[in-house]
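In the previous chapter we treated chains in isolation. Here, by contrast, the input contains two separate entities that must be folded as one system, with a combined length of 613 residues.
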Amino acid sequence: MRTILTALSFFLLITYISAQDNIIIRKSFLSVNYLQVKESANFGLVFKGAGLDHGMAWSLDNDRSRMIYEYELGLGILFSREIPALGFHLKPVDIAYLFKLRVQNSLFHIGPDLRVEYNYNLYPDLQSGFDYWFTNLSLGINVMYDFNHANSAFYIKLSSSVAGFTSRQPDYRDPYFYDLGVKHAIRHLNQDLTFGLINKFNSTNLEIRWKPNSDSRLTFGYVLKYSGYFMAPEITMVNHSIKLIVNKKQKQND
Amino acid sequence: MIRNVLILLSFFLLASCLKEEELKKPFTSSDPASLDDGWEVSTPAAENIDPTGLSEIYRDFHNDDNIWQARSLLVFRNGKLVAESYTKDDSDIITPRAIWSATKQVLGLLTGIALDNQIIKSVNDPLSDYLTETEIYQDKKDISIEDLLTMRSGISYSNDGIGGQTDDILRQLPDKITSYILGLPLVNSPGEIVQYKDCDPQLVSASIQAKCGKPVSEWAKVVLFDKLEIKNLIWNNYKDGVTLGGFGILTTPREMAKFGQCVLDSGQWKGSTIVSREWIRQMTGVKVGNIYGYQFGYLWWKDPGRGMTYMSGHGGQYVCIIPSRKLIVAMTAEVNTQGEFQFGKQAFDWVDRIVQISK
């Protein structure tokens, strides 16, 4: 499934680049996060802490549409009642294909969003030996709104999953035996993927960006991420991020 | 516009804070349920325990946020279940959960049954009488059963941490558990140095199994669990079929307490002899003066200050026997916590409070 999606994504990307007169914008970003994780196996405890994410994004714009590819990698250290936890986050693929839509003087982008997200958490002093994960390969909708105000550029993005495949740790595991290690983590994150709609899981991002002026290479952002899995074992993750985006390059491709 | 954005941001910041749930239920009642599981149910007053004082203890047990890991507290007196309450989930009454090292104390009882049945001839027997693997690992052949029961094998083994040998076993990395343990270095002469470790009872389990011809978990069902009317118990075998000895049992606090009652009644359960009185005396006698500040018999713990013999498992799984009061207190807690986050020996403070109101 992932191979097909990756191949399809690359095909769309290449076709898109070669067929259009595009402006290609490359960005990298660093975000400081305030993370909250409520995992049902943790007896109602909420783990809160700080994290750091790094990512890159490529945006291809033309008159009619915008295509965005983004990846993200992050690490967090969380605590609940002084009990430590580690959280890893990887989003290797986030592709949005957005159509431009003018409503009066405002410019909207709207279209589908294909995303692969891995979340992997360890609670060494609470759930010794066991790993916890939430994977989702989702198809959703992405809406962007760009506007200028007093020489500053603003950008509001809302994306939300609608359907996809998810993987979670089993609701019950023998408390004695466990598998831990990189090899097992990779296997766990990709095992037993099952299909679900919005009643089973949801991953929603709201992002607000501010570019102080049109010449600035820096953009500042705030992101609110929500991820939830609503079947047993349930999980809720909320992440507030302050994001610093560096606009790397802009080139015309015609 | 900027103001609207800031208002929106503030709203999201405030609205998106996750809230911790109540980690324990409020106390409602400690009246025990009649389950037809072999326990006769009674009341605190009938067994000379102050009912008001006991209710207060239970209320505190539920309300004390410092022991958020605790799952159950059960009080038995004169062979009867007097009070019970489950702080998180009432299904704990019948749902088996890991008792970790309290498995060792069950194995202690089974060793006595093995001696009573001549499966083990004597605790002085060398390991070579039981395990053919000692032909390969010659340095271990003189380790006696008693050395194993008192944590004196001399084998280099660590229960703790990633990379420790218990971690290897829990991840089922070795193919053969007995060969794996016997293949570890011998760092002390057998019988010399005490070091609390999981490998010693594991070799006891392997020795009994070698003579029984079946997993100890199966044999135990016939000679011990069925006789104690235990139904809610699972005992894991290692992947090569050898029953785990240092840990491996999942059971309920009610079932755990039956092992305690059997010890309190000198090896009997409802008048039938399960284990010889002599073995109970030996097993609960002091064989090691100090492990972690407590005394140790044949795989059983003793707290001389409290006049208490007890079972103890990782995370906070306890059965505390106070023979002078004919009292048993069983407590369980979350099973995979580590270090200071376990329901540790502060559990004994609750035993003290119950003893104080038991005339």
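Chain A has a mean pLDDT of 91. The longest strand of chain A covers residues 83-103. Compare these points with the single-chain example from earlier in the chapter.
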